[in-house]
Design goal:
eight-stranded mixed β-sheet, homodimer
């Protein structure tokens, strides 16, 4: 299976002429986009540092690119030093599909009421046990996370959902989005979210929204934030 | 070869149970995107008109979608009734490439001076012989077109070029863009455009910009305009 980590490690290993293993800040399942992904690796090679980003991008395929490279301390880990992850989810909410957004946004043709979706937010924000929104349980079994931000806005045909937390469980963003979509279409009430959370059971929540609407937008560290806007929301007229 | 027209004709023929030939308003070479394309066809079948758009989209692959369908007079031709076509060209102008824009914008890493590009516009606007910007000559041999609008704007890393004309020659937009990029990077002066136009020779103009940055944005008719913004410029925060 071709993975982002595998392709990146192969390019780094080729350039640095030694096997390189990376640590990634945020999970990205197949089909998920990443704009603000952060990875770390260590090497003893003396490759000219200012040319590494250009060398890497010329080696990488066009669906994977590196924005910047910085030297960090030995104790830094892209995964374990992260303080907060931000994901953005894009929904195309109109009757007709869009060829250019087919793999960039989740097409929901039923009209969605953003206010009804927003009414569910108070039941999800804060420190909670998100087990009802978890696909594969983490090895530790710990399913408590702190959801610090949940914003839902409409711009024309597109609905943009942004979530920030200290960490996310497997498929947590997509399952929350799938459940919010059911609130927005009237199939579920915002108040029902309280009992879904309390159930601590994946069967209580809604469908998992598809991977292709999801963007890992950024990772925050002490003194650094990789946040970038998803291209479909970035350059409006 | 798989073409937009071929895929659309196959879906229409399947639904209407008769061979359908379409007429398209604007040319889209391989790799070019179309948001505001208009096509016309005639049929004697009595398919329930209000369900045709939904039936068609469920038959079409996800990289081709139909926004709306309208009944027109017998004398209407998507191609010959068109009064004006508008194309938008997207350039990503920064050092690093973008995975998500790789097939949606032309990556130019040399810094481009938009003012220098705009200075070339007066030499191109209006009714002119665009033979110097024409790939394959039209059968008629007529290479005079009227360029009514040429706008160049920068939004962050993206440069947006919009051109409207009564019609465009083969590769005309891409050759104008390639020449403007050479003005923007300082390889060519804006004033040199006057002699390029006068030369009536493809060898006088610049490189053809790649297809994947080009969007057919809209076609204007008497009383109707199909114009849509390209998704990368549509939904800014």
């Amino acid at each position: 299976v071709r993975t982002v980590a595998g392709v990146l490690e192969a390019a780094l290993s080729l350039i640095l002429k030694e096997p390189v293993k990376i640590s990634s800040a945020g999970r990205t399942d197949a089909g998920v986009h990443a704009i603000g992904q952060v990875v770390s690796f260590s090497t003893l090679r003396a490759f000219p540092f200012d040319r590494l980003c250009i060398a890497l991008n010329s080696e990488l395929p066009d669906d994977l690119s590196v924005r910047e490279i910085t030297i960090v301390g030995d104790d830094f880990s892209a995964r374990f030093s992260a303080l907060e992850r931000t994901y953005v989810y894009a929904i195309l909410n109109r009757r007709e599909p869009s060829a250019l957004l087919a793999r960039r946004a989740f097409h929901v043709w039923l009209p969605l009421d953003v206010d009804a979706m927003l009414a569910a937010a108070p039941h999800l924000l804060g420190e909670r046990d998100f087990r009802s929104f978890c696909g594969v349980l983490p090895e530790s079994g710990a399913t408590v996370r702190t959801l610090r931000r949940l914003e839902i806005t409409r711009r024309g045909d597109l609905i943009r959902i942004e979530m920030a937390a200290d960490g996310f469980l497997h498929r947590m963003v997509r399952t929350i989005v799938g459940t919010l979509v059911e609130c927005g279409s009237g199939r579920r009430t915002a108040e029902s979210l309280a009992s879904i959370v309390a159930a601590r059971d994946r069967a209580a929540s809604g469908n998992t929204a598809p991977a292709h609407g999801l963007y890992l937008a950024g990772v925050r560290y002490e003194g650094y934030d990789s946040y970038c806007e998803a291209p479909i929301f970035e350059h409006g007229r």
